[in-house]
Amino acid sequence: MSETKNILLVGVGGQGIILASKVLSKGLVDAGFDVKMSEVHGMAQRGGSVTTQVRYGEKVYSPIIGKGQADILVAFEKMEAMRWIEYLKPNGKLVINNYSIPSVPVLTGQVKYPENIIEELKEKVDTTVIDAANAARELGNIRTQNIIMLGALVKALNITEVNWEEAIRETVKEKYIDINLKAFNRGMELV
Amino acid sequence: MKRLLTGNEAVARGAYEAGVTVASAYPGTPSTEILENIAKYKEIYSEWAPNEKVALEVAIGASIAGARAIAAMKHVGVNVAADPLFTFAYTGVNGGCILVTADDPGMHSSQNEQDNRYYAKSAKLVMLEPSDSQEAKDFVKLGYEISEMFDVPILLRLTTRICHSKTLVELEERQEVEIKEYNKNIAKYVATPANGRILHVKLEEKLKKLEEYSNNTPINKVEFNDKSIGIITSGVAYQYAKEVFGDNASYLKLGMTFPLPKQKIREFAEQVDKLYVIEELEPYLETEIKAMGIDVIGKELIPNIGELNPDIIREALLGEKKEIIEMNSEKIVSRPPTMCAGCPHRGLFYVLSKKKNVVITGDIGCYTLGSAPPLETMDTCICMGASVSAGHGFSKAFEVNGKEAKVFGVIGDSTFFHSGITGLIDIVYNKGNAATIILDNRITGMTGHQENPGTGYTLMGEVTEQIDLVKICEAIGVKHIEVINPLDLEETEKAIDKAINTDEPVVIITKWPCVLKKSPKEEIEEYGLDQRKICTVESDKCKQCKLCLKVGCPAISFEEGIGAIIDDTMCVGCDVCLQVCPFNAIVKVGE
Ligand code: SF4
Ligand code: SF4
Fold first, then answer.
1. pTM attached to this predicted model
2. ipTM exceeding cut-off 0.85 for this assembly
3. Cα torsion B271, B274, B279, B281: sign
4. Of B109, B324, B373, the CB nearest to A86
């Protein structure tokens, strides 16, 4: 593979995006790719939006991409998908978690949380909707949403060169390995 | 072994491999993780200093004593450390010394976007600018060599994108470097005017030799490809330029940007047809190159505002734009950061927000979020420490004009130690009447929980003396000091009202641990943190007046027709909303 692939993960602080990106990058590095990962988590713990960009290929220069360049956009939260959709290639893939987290202007009733997000996005781009929250609950831990989304990402991009099980084993805390392995497989099935 | 490291982790690794033994810093995004990672290496003594000036001075002292030393800070921190910095360039080092400045183009979390490359030129320090994590590590090691070879301190400039991006780094072993012998040398290390005059001459001589070095060092490297376009660049801008132009241009990539390799620049310029300078923020390289009489294209096409990226370059220099998916952006609601559910600052700001005729001078920390809706309780925010001193200026101006308004300076515990103390001394000494509120949440919150002199622990995890804020304020001469629980609105209101009616300096210390803090056992007991029960709304009692929304807790939402709703996964039971509801509709779960 010579072309650089661009992955964009977006969501809200606390959703485990950084950890999912770590597993992703670790897997890609071990498979021998040049990898660059950029995090923006300005005030993540304070309810802000969080994004990470992972770029991989034979040789990667910039750690960040611009609008219209992501091969895949993985949105952990619905409204964040809208916010970042400009970054997706027009023929790229959107994997969206059917999950909303209202922001403060919504909570305080100043504005409404947008409606029909998924419908609108589907009209414009190749969209896969994942119900990661329910899938995670079924697995018994709501916090595994992130690895479910990662599994979905890997399937959607069809990244076959990587030993994901090992990447997960080496990145997550020991007692969560099993549930995260399950979550990853669940995510693969959901695409 | 290759590993993915952030630029900050790579700098820490570089310090370890280079045999550094002393490291000091004050936390500040995007630089914070440098010291947090250095602290993992037990071979290096590492500490949080109360501010950046102290951090640099600690490094200077260690360097003169003969040890390799490092100080790290964010760009605005260098302003605080600028005083010793300029003189340090004169005295030079003994053990090698590096000051890391982490600039924040785009202001991801800063109050301005200054370009600290000018510090190198202005203070006459060697400047190195890495463009990825591997270089960040390599340049630290090279920096110590240059520092000791030429007897100069080094400024290592990172930017947010370098600090927080992970790229591959080859790890190596630590090289133990012996502490150099220290010999008393008054002419070198005592910067009196007589010595300084001689040192300045010596420094200029060193800079000439360093320019020669700069012309020959491989970190200022030429990559010839297509010669119709030549690009001079440094830092992360190099990566962006490569991303856009690839092999369709030739590059002069500068790793050492002060002193500049003028000879190399001239030779490069002669060999290419069209010359661009691609740099982030200010036209630092461009101005220097133009002053050499070389024609370049730079800031007329590339903005000097905001973070650079490949898109901007592509559009500005090639006129290309990527096709994008358009959405109705009006539909997208903003997601501003907010004070967390249960944040101890919320109670105080809620009380302040209801007071008429008060001015709140703010400071840098989590509590700056008190300026956001719905609380909007802040009139100014300039820099660390300015809450207290600008508040004093405010109240003096009001006094002269005969305006009756109480001024409250709000400042965090760590920030008070950083540079609030001097402002408070000013208020007492000069008979001011501005009130100072120290928001003591028992930790440095904003940057992600670093210990500070008030917490009782050091960076290396040792138990230490806890600096007592009350005693400090007493010692300064403040007579009215109150320590309150900011989650108790009545108690808070009383203290505020008392301050409004007092014409002498007042200090109110709001003491409650940050809600995100991993409190030690004693603290959990002291504050009864494990006894807290979360709140819920009894919807039949809710009159839908929306008053509870005014506290701005992210756990409270509102649905027309139903009323207020408290998210049970977010609420921590701080009780602020419960005290605000006039209809007692908010109750404790299970009570
Ligand atoms: S303050 Fe009380 S009555 Fe008013 S909306 Fe909130 S819960 Fe309902
Ligand atoms: S008690 Fe009220 S203000 Fe405090 S965290 Fe819970 S919902 Fe927020």
1. 0.94
2. yes
3. positive
4. B324
